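Hey,

Quick one before I head out. I ran the complex with beta-D-glucopyranose overnight. Inputs first:
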Amino acid sequence: MKPSLVASIVLATLGAGLVAATCEAASARPWLDANRSPDERARLAVAAMNTEEKLSILHGPMPINFPGMAPVAFPAEAIPAAGYIPGVPRLGLPALFETDASLGIANGFDARPGDVATALPSSLALAASFNLPLAQATGTLLGEEAHAKGFNVLLGVGANLARDPRNGRNFEYLGEDPLLAGLLAAEEIHGIQGQHVVATLKHFAINSHETNRTTLDARIDEAAARESDLLAFQLALERSDPGAVMCSYNLVNGSHACGNDWLLNQVLKGDWQYRGWVMSDWGAVHGVDDALHGLDQQSGEQLDKQVYFGAPLAAAVAAGKVPMRRIDDMARRILRSQFAVGAVDNPPALSSDRQPDKAAIDYKAHAAHALEVARQGIVLLRNEGALLPLPATLRRIAVIGGNAHVGVLSGGGSAQVLPSNGPPVIVPIGGGAPFFDFRKAFYLPGSPLAAIRAAAPQAQVDFDSGSFPADAAALAAVADVAIVFVTRHELEAYDVPDMRLPNGQDETVAAVAAANPHTVVVLETGNPVAMPWIDRVAGVLAAWYPGQEGGRAIADVLFGAVNPSGRLPVTFPVDDAHSMRPRLPNLGANPAADVGVDYSEGADVGYRWYLRHGVQPLYPFGFGLGYSSFAYAGFDAQAGSQPSVSFTVTNSSQRAGADVPQVYLVSVGGKAEPRLLGFRRVQLNPGETQAVRMNIDPRLLSHFDEAGGRWRLAAGTYKLVLARSALDRVMERDLRLPARDFR
Ligand code: BGC
């Protein structure tokens, strides 16, 4: 017999043995049978668990010991990262290994020394691409890396709306509009869960500030919340069914989000019929009663005053204060999500020494994806006299500021990643309210200076730190073009006090612009910033926190290897005085003080507020320039039970490029009612035309009736526009719709 045949017989016999063993296991443990539905499997597993086992999966620690904090014990299998929840080995149910992921697979505290990951552009940069398939591919990348590192739960995607341009965490979110944020989050979640990793939609809800985040009471009209922040979550949930939702630190209308019956029981699990589990944010649980109000799991338990979901919850069950059926429901939700995404059937592969198979990660391919997101996320805000793209004939270029000789800045906090392309330069910031060691600025390698030199090999490229405006101006004066990098480090647990750039950078830009009319500014920030020098510079790019390949992406846009196509996912107000919310004077003075914040703008977040109040922003939501031009035609709107719009887009230039046509509601019966109804990123060759058709979600045309628990679409004339941004309207159509109520 040929050796290969022998081998196949041996393999077949072994395979048959395995199948038999699996079948046997499945009949003894029917919840391990992948042919059954996730609901049935979860029900069967819970029925097989004793009370102690059920309670054991409802809480767990952050498996990291921090200096200065009481040490916590966790089993050897726990991966040092954000969270660990024990499994039930007797029943073949795995533990939960949880990692943060807003910027890539996090390793912020260097808890796994040297464990690198692809450091992606911030979520706000992804949002600026307005590109749904790109969001899904980003989720797939995150899921793949998480799985290969041994994780089965990813603590992302963040879908809070950007209500305040000073919120330290807006870079982790997907902008100010519920449709944009909801659709992008859904695609990312699909990508993550396709890799058998549970995605966690966070932070539920109205977590719009970081300073005072644990004591802040977000006061908001309930119906307005349903039409804004909650709508983003609802859209994401119904399209992608994330396994978990993370409730936030803050209070909402008087009760903590993680113990908020209205948010968790009535809206999320009641009205939206959410079937997954609600996990707490780390240190956001306030008592056993939170279990009655909808919280299913206590995360990072050592950060709370007590391990409430440990002995106290067991005692409450024994005393009949928390019914056993609620415990069953909590356990069932946690298990159902794991079965639904295939986390139990496809556990992370472990090598012979029981280490995750990190070698499986294709960092090169993932870096190419990070580059693509950075390229598509960069927004060209200003390009006077078509200075950009820069020509290959430049002889002398001055690069100034932003530590552009070192790398690109990243946002800070639990999302921090150790990049895969080399060690970052880490600058401890010091000062401020200490929160672990979030106050460290990471400069990711891949310096923009090196990328500019590579893009312009014929030019002399000099660098100045930008520390002294006079030095920077002197260098700029002798250059053909001056490129000024400005940065602002923004981070979790801290809001910046105002919209300005720190460390005298405005003075440097002003001095450089006065010395050279060909000045281009590159912003590396987590939010809009005020640009008092805007009229004096020729060009501005918003690069956000562009990730480990950001230096190259910036140079690609500057020199035209890439035609910019990003659009603003947030309004850029002129300055603090002209922004939607004044800086809250009561924030920050005492991080532990109880503060109430009235979100009186209600559902009018971002562009909705600016339009309704007639306040002119510096750059509107949806705005972004490119090196091509596009023409729109044939805008039509169709009524009926599923309203829709159609139009064509033509690339009317000589350059291939992408455009993002947007459709907005402007008014109902003549009354201003600005809302984004749809968008589509289209890639077109010169002269090419594409027909676009979009269905309109009727919720975007309606108001929520909180008392009746339903959406109400009023009869009337709806004015719709096809636009290039929230302000740049190209064509309009009226749509007559009859009244309609729906849930
Ligand atoms: C953050 C969460 C994060 C968790 C675990 C908290 O501080 O708010 O977003 O997932 O820590 O690291």
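Confidence is low (pLDDT under 50) at residues 1-21.

Talk tomorrow,
K.
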